[in-house]
Amino acid sequence: MNTNKSEISAREQGAILTSLAAGLVPQLGLQHLVVGRKGEIQALAGDLDAIQSGGATFRVIIGPNGAGKTFLEHLDRDLAIQAGLVVLSADLTPHHRLHATDGRTRALYSSLMANVYTKACPSGNGLRPLLESWISGLAFEDGVQGASPEGMTRAISERLRPLKDYLGGFEFAQVLGRYYEGYANDNPALQDSAVRWLRAEYSTKTEARHDLGVRRIINDEELFAALKLFSAFCCLAGHRGVLVMLDELTALTHRLPDARARRANVQVLLNVINDCIQGDVSHLGFLLAGTPDALNDPERGLFSVPALQSRFQSCAPRGCVDYSSPVLTLEPLGKEDLLVLMHNVRRVHALGDTAKYRLPDEALEQFLMRVLARFGQKAVANPRDVLRPFVSILNILDQEPDRPWQDLITGALTDKPTSTTPAEATLANLNLR
Amino acid sequence: MSETSTIQAWLAARQPVDEIPVPFVAAQTTELSNQPLDEKYKTVLRELLKRPSWERAELKPLAARVGLMPMALVAKTNEWALETYGDLLLEGDGPINVNKRLHSKLNS
How many domains is chain A partitioned into structurally? Predict the structure, then answer.
């Protein structure tokens, strides 16, 4: 078998091909597809190094739709969990904000805690495994081994003593103790309440006190403090830090109708950046993503706030890219990159076995020429329009290996490209165009 | 160097989790995952493979046999399966499904 050094698992192959066929970015195995972006990847890997070493990072990926923001985010998430970090991920929306007083910041925190990625749980359901792995590990420790449930609860409180220096740390330890009590006493409702507290799903202290006996909840004002606390816990639990990924930055800059709400959200962003830059945070990183409007719009973009502009705007000479800048701007892939991407997809499809390639190099070049002739620059700007029919051809050749590939390439690409911006999609759905 | 090999090289350069000094000895489950499975754990694994899916509560007695809480068993099993077979064995968090692809591989 002729295989490449970098092995592709059947799980990765399935995830990649299914996602690409649906026009989505795969959730895993992205290292097998990656094309270009070497500087960006090294910059993001450098951030992960910094988080692991106890630092704090703040990075924004900016690029038009289809430029590969989601791809880069998923790749970074993969790298982070492989490196022992915990990743929290959520989309910013008008209902999931950095600042609010009506539960919408709490909702963002809930969303982050509902999407906890670890190496053992790469699908995002990692909160309970994370808690239970730590508690189970504790039970193996000298002095705790064979302890009664009460002894275990005391040990949990003891081991989490360092968290009491953090806002809400005392209650966090109490809640973890209650979680264990729920386990020891066959009381899943108590465990569910503890998870509900950790996910900031309690809206009143009364309810939390009734269910868990704690006097505090994670509220709208405590998003950042709660993330710092969670990161400290993850480090105690043997992980190396936390990466928080927030997509759809434009939701804060362009989808909040009230200027005061926009300012308040941007102010939180500024506070987070300042804390990260000034070294007040450890083992915690932030990665945000958005379209160029989120930065450059003179009225609503982050650059319209002088303090943010001074922190974000690159000082690199014209024509140069400074990858150490907090903002990574993605340019669309080039035609050559697109060809390499197709080579990579073909390799994934054959699980790295060159003998099983369904299409020769010549076919890939012909397909690309046809794509460019049909869609021009738009195809290059949004690779999903190229990859969907390409994967389809590979799948058909799996089903009908004797079919001439020339026929399939000629017959492909008869539809218009499907990629649209969210606004275009909305307009299309409303039949307003 | 290609982007893929850049990533592989970066990952290869990472220290294993257990080499990082942490305030408390709290990483046993991760350390255990890097070791071959002991006999007791293999018995649990065989039990796990007997059914296509499990409720979280049903995993409790099974996990207790190896001194773990149910979702810690899921995490440990998956870390082992990822390292050994490049795939997760247990998916979801209620019910927890046994991955059919790996099931046949493990049974063989």
Answer: 3
Residue type, A303: F
Q: Is the Cβ of A9 closer than 8 Å to some Cβ of chain B?
A: yes
Beta strands in A217-354 (DSSP E): 242-247, 284-290, 327-329
- The 10s digit of each residue's pLDDT in A5-34 is 468 888 899 999 999 999 999 988 999 999
Prediction pTM value: 0.87
A34 and chain B in contact, CB less than 8 A:
yes
In A305-383, alpha helices (H): 306-312, 335-349, 361-375, 377-381
Same domain, A320 and A339: no
- Structural domain that includes position A182: 128-220
Highest mean predicted confidence (pLDDT) among A215-219, A370-374, B89-93 = A215-219
Complex ipTM = 0.84
On chain A, the residues whose CB falls within 8 A of the CB of B67 are 136, 139-140
Q: How far apart are CA A129 and CA A125, in angstroms?
A: 8
Chain B neighbors of A86, CB-CB under 8 A: none
Q: Which of A45, A237, A240 is the closest to B10 by Cβ?
A: A45
pLDDT class of B23 with cuts at 50, 70, 90: very low
